Amino acid sequence: MRHVRRIAFRPNVGFGGKSRDTAMVARGCRSRCGAGVVFAAYPLIDIEIARWFFDGEAAQFPIARNADWLSIRKSLNWIPYLFVLPALFVLLRKIVFPGSPMPIAPSVVLFLIGSLIAGPGIATNVVLKDNWGRPRPNHIQQFAGTADFKPWWQPGGACPRNCSFVSGEASQAYWLVAPAMLAPPPLRPAAMGVAVVFGTSVGALRVAFGRHFVSDVVFAAVITIAIVIGFYWLLLDPIRRNDARLERAIERGAIALHRSAGGLLAGAGNALTHAGRALWQAGQRWQAYIASLKPVPDYPHWTEKPDSLV
């Protein structure tokens, strides 16, 4: 195996092997949990904050109809994908070419892809948004809608799917804490701060649009950052990290996938061969049947039929 210079990651470790990065992010997560307690005790804060952006005379959230703000929203949603694309490319390259070395450390690749899938993907959009039932602000009676307001801790509202709790776009934006934790140690605190500010800005925009309550954004941050910390602990903590073992496991999985794909293709080829043989035999039988048919006599005048046909 030829030598490839790998993009590594050096954790910011303090005394006793404890990561300063996870401690810093955990403090921010605890502060947002405290905010969640406040929203549980005073749920009407959600309505009061949403009212700041609602135009009662027009019965709408004006920013949600502004083309410039809609363009900004769409642009911001692409940013997290730009940070995961290199890891996704490296993983796909390893799957296609199992013997090739990974230029980015396997633990970093799995950390980025796994936390994005588990956090914004599964926890936010699959588990919560499609099952919690909380109506969005623009759907409740206080803002020209028809549904009843539900506090964040009370599931089972009038929304059938893609509901308000939690904010999917804010969760995706807060996921940028994951690549920020990979920045060089001197820049890492600033990078994580920028990631949190970015997530808060995206969440604030969704609140201004009338599509989410503030508590939706707060718990999007709590859940997403907690999942990022969990993946960091599993894959990047110095005590558990083993890139050589991870790469071997990915390589074995890729080889098994190649074998399975080869077996499926071979089975499909055999099935097509049998189908082709059956069609050929059916064609031969049809030709034999056509050849066995007697031609109809060609009579010059159909009105003058021989006695055998009368």
Task: Kindly describe this structure.
- 60% of the residues lie in helices and 0% in strands.
- The relative contact order is 0.14.
- The chain has two domains: 15-241, Vanadium-containing Chloroperoxidase, domain 1 (Up-down Bundle), CATH 1.20.144; 256-309.
- The protein is built from nine helices and no strands.
- With 310 residues, it is an all-alpha fold.
- Residues 13-17 have low confidence and may be disordered.
Which structural traits does this protein have?
9 helices; Vanadium-containing Chloroperoxidase, domain 1; mainly alpha; 310 residues
Please state the structural category. Answer: mainly alpha
The CATH level-2 architecture of the largest domain is identified as: Up-down Bundle
Beta-strand percentage range: under 5%
Here the CATH topology of the largest domain equals Vanadium-containing Chloroperoxidase, domain 1
- First-residue to last-residue Cα separation: 91 Å
Whole-number mean pLDDT: 86
The largest β sheet comes out as: none
Spans of 5+ residues with little confidence (pLDDT < 50)?
Answer: 13-17
- The tally of helices reads 9
CATH class of the largest domain: Mainly Alpha
Helix and strand topology:
Blueprint: H1 20-41, H2 44-51, H3 67-96, H4 106-128, H5 168-174, H6 177-180, H7 188-208, H8 214-235, H9 243-292
Helix pairs in contact: 1-8, 3-4, 4-5, 4-8, 5-7, 5-8, 7-8
Quick recap:
By secondary structure, the protein is mostly helical. It is built from nine helices and no strands.
